[in-house]
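Supplementary Methods, section 5.1.

A reviewer requested that the exact input to the structure prediction be made available. We therefore reproduce it here, unchanged from the version used in the analyses.
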Amino acid sequence: MNCAQAKTPTELAICADADLLRRDSDLSVVYGKLGAARPDGRTALRQDQRDWLRARNRCGADAGCIRDQYLVRLSALQDLLRSATAYVPDETDRLALEDLRQAVEAASRKNAEFPLEDALAALSIQGGMTTFANVRANVDDDEARFPAKRPDGVTPDEWKALQASGIDAGGENGAASYTLMDLDGDGQRDLVIDSYTGGTGLFSDISALRRVGDRYAEAIGANGDAVSGLYTLNGRGSNQGSDWVRLRGRVYAAYRNSNYGADQVYLLRPLHAVGEVPTLTVQYRYQLQVPKQQKRADKDEVRILDDALHAGLTQALAGVDPESARGGGDSANPPGAPARPLCPIPADVKDDERDRYYQYGAGHYSYETVADIAVHVGARCYVARLIDWFGSYDAKSGLSAMMWMREPGADNGDEEFLVQGRRHAIRFGTSVGPI
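The structure derived from this sequence is encoded cell-by-cell as follows.
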C-alpha cells in the first residue's frame, strides 16, 4: 500500500490503522512469493487478487470488515503457497512406498492380523538414537524445564549445540521430549521435538530441527520460510502413531492414522515441508460377535445374556459392514436407498420425535460411529449404535467396540454391550497425495 497515493475510503482507512497496514504488507509478501513459486499461474492469480480487492473495497472505511477480508485472503494465499512450495515425492520415495507395501503384504501371509505392526517393527530404526525429556527441578514445580545438565547419551558437542540453540519446547506444563538422530544422512544427529500441547484432543506436536554448524535450526523450505512441523498426534479422539523407519537409504516418519477397517500410513520426510505424501492403505475385514458373557473391566459383575437378546444382537451385527464404517443416521439402509426408519414409527409419535426412530442420536469426537442398526428381540424393535475407537486394536481384546441400545421413544434405560472383533488384512493400496 502506497499511502502517499491513498484515495479511496478503504485505502485511507488502511493507512490510518497500523494493524491493517501490517496485514497489507504481509499479504503483499505472500502474494509475491506465490507468484514466484507458480509462474505459470500468475495470470489467474492476478485476476483472483483483483476480484478480492473489489470485495475488500466494498468494506468502505469499516476497519473490522477490512480486517476480516485480509484475514481470509491471507489464509487462502498461505495455503496455496504451502502447496506450491511443499516437498514433491520423487522416484526414490515412490520406490520406498512400494517396498513398504511389499513388506506389509509379505507380513500378512504370516500374520494377517498384525501385518503393518510386524512390518514396521522390522523396518524401524533401532540404534543411533538418544531420547531425553524436560524435567522438574523440584517435585512440586508446576512447569518442567529443559535439563540443566547433559543427559546420558548426549555428546558434549551436541550439548553445546543444544544450549546455543535455546531449545525448550515445553507445551502444557512444560511437557516435552527430545530425540537426537541422524535424519538426513550427513553423519550428524538432528533433533526431533515432541511437545505436548494438551487441549481436549490431548495433542502433541512433533517437529524436527537440522544440525547446522554449532546449533540446531529449522530447515528452510523452497519459499524461504522455516520448515520444522512434521505431524500431530491426537491422544483423545483418534487412533494415531508413528515409527521412524529407513527405506531406500532414507529416514521417514511412518505416520499412521487409523479408522474402522483401515490403517493409513504416510511416509513423511523430516526437514521438508509436508505436501503430497506417499501413502499406504491397509484394508481389514472384521468378524464381529457379541459375547454371551458380558464382563466389563470397570465393573465387578458378569451378565449372561438370555438367548433371545443374544440372538437379536447377533443378527443385528450381521448387517454391519465388516470393512468400513457408515457412520450414524440411516446407516442400516443400502447406499442410495430412500431413508427409512430403523424401527416402525407409531402413529401417535410427534413430528419432532420421529428422528429418534431413524438414528441413535448425536455422536462425539472421542469415538467413531460404525453404524446405527435395528435390534429385534422377539416382537420388540430397538435402535442401536455400534461404536469403536477408530480401529483401536490389540492382540488380547481385538477390536475395541461397544453397542448401545435403547427403545426408540425412551429418554433413558439405554443398555450397552461389549462387542468383540477379530480382523485380517484383505487389501493393500498405495497412492501419492495430500495428507
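The chain has a mean pLDDT of 92. These observations are discussed further in the main text.
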